Each structure stands twice: as structure tokens, then as C-alpha cells.
Amino acid sequence: MKETITMWKNTRMVVLTAISAAVYTSILIPFKGFQIVPGFTEVRPAASIPVTFGILFGPAGAWGSAIGNLIGDLIAMLSLASIPGFIGNFFFALVAYKLWRHFKLKVNWSRKFFLMLSFISLFSSLAVSFIIGAGGMMLGLFPFKVLAPIIAINNFLANLLITPFLLQVLYPRVEKWGLLWEEVMEESERRASLIGAFLLITGIGGGWFLTFYLPDIINIYSFAINKSAVSIIFLLTIFIGSMF
């Protein structure tokens, strides 16, 4: 998480943030009319951008995704859901670059590349859907079971079908120009942590499925626990994992 703060001291990272936000917004807006759940989500081929730009530009891609989504909401459908939307899209890209660093993949047409990228896309999509779904549930906007699966499937399919091709085209060029975030930022700002990756995967997977399957009120002995409390625990796990 440190890199998401220190990157603002780096001019190139700030420029990459602006580019990421502009590209994301420009692809989001034309599809705002194709609503799946009116006022909350729509058909999103642009969902491939946070994962792609997260892998390429790291924290700049994360901030760009969050800002780009907010701009899209300002133009089309700003609401309370825009708050978890901002946070969710930030982690959409953050999870992608955090996990990518552990696999150390080469961008090619190999089976390993597609399998690992699918894994990264899956957990990135589950992360954004969990954060937006849980946030909307806590704000009383919509049930988690209604929106979270739609967001997860919508985003995962976009990444499954589009992201591999975007990386094939963009990664070698961005690398040649010296704009990969690992090359732009200091080594101390881009360390990989196995503990962090474990906490991210646990928080995302555990939080998503428990929030989906648990009843609204959980009775443990003589205590009644609201499902939102369970979601908060796993949201904190994701946040802690992102700090490593």
C-alpha cells in the first residue's frame, strides 16, 4: 500500500494515473446506456482496463481505475454506490498487480500465462464485486446476493476475453518505453509479499462466499451477529493484505 502514496511524488506515475483514468472513462461512458442493474452496473468491456493497467502501471493503474470510474459516475449515475465503487475499482487494479508480481509471468501465448492471468482476473473481479456488494449492502442500497454475482461475472468475462490480447499488444511496448511501474518506482516501493498475497486471497474469497451464503443474522450461542460484521472482518483482511 505504501507505493500508492509515494507514487504521487513521481511525475511519470502521476501522468500514467491521468492516462489510465482517461482511457477507462472513455470506454466506460459509451456503455452506460446498457444497464444490467439500473443505476448500479452496466455492460462493461472496460472492466479489462483496471486489470491490464494494474499489471502495467501498478498503483497508477489503481488510482486511474478509481478516478476513471468516479468520473464515469459523475457523468452518468452518481449515487451513494459511487463510494464503494471508487474503493472497489481501486482494489480491482491493486489486486491484479499484487498477484501478478508473485507469478512473475512472461506475456506470451502459453497455457501457464492464460491460466495464471485467469486466476488473477478471477480474484480481481471477486474483489471489486465484494467491496461494492458489501458496501451497497451496508448502505442499504441493494442485497449482496443481487449485485455482487452480476459484477463478478460481468468483470471476469470481460477480462477473460479481452485482457490477454491487451497485454500481448501493450506489455512489450510499455516495457520497451521503460514505463512498467516496477521500472519507474524504487525497489523499496515495489516489494512482493507472500503474506500479503495470502491475506488478499483469503479476504476476497472468504469474504465473498460467506457474505453470499450466510443469513442476514447469524446466531452463535446466545449472540446474534449481523452479516455486515462478517463482511467488515474480511474487508479489513483485504486492506491489511494490501499493505504488504
CATH architecture designation: Orthogonal Bundle
| Uncertain parts | none
**Spatial ordering of strands, largest sheet:** 1-2
Strand tally, please? 4
Helix count, DSSP H or I runs of 4 or more residues = 10
- Helical residues, percent: over 70%
Quaternary status of these chains?
single chain
State Rg: 17 Å
Global structural class: mainly alpha
* Secondary-structure element order, N to C: HHEEHHHHHHHEEH
Mind explaining what this structure looks like?
- The protein starts with a helix and ends with a helix.
- 71% of the residues lie in helices and 5% in strands.
- The protein contains ten helices and four strands, in the order H-H-E-E-H-H-H-H-H-H-H-E-E-H.
- The longest helix is centred in the middle third of the chain and has 33 residues, at 144-176.
- The chain is globular, with a radius of gyration of 17 Å.
- Helix 2 runs parallel beside helix 4, helix 4 (59-76) packs antiparallel against helix 5 and helix 6 (111-138) packs across helix 7 (144-176).
- A two-stranded antiparallel sheet has the order 1-2. It has a two-stranded antiparallel ribbon with strand order 3-4.
- It has one domain (2-190): Arp2/3 complex 21 kDa subunit ARPC3 (Orthogonal Bundle).
Key terms for this structure?
Arp2/3 complex 21 kDa subunit ARPC3; globular; two-stranded antiparallel sheet; mainly alpha; 71% helix; 244 residues; 10 helices; single chain
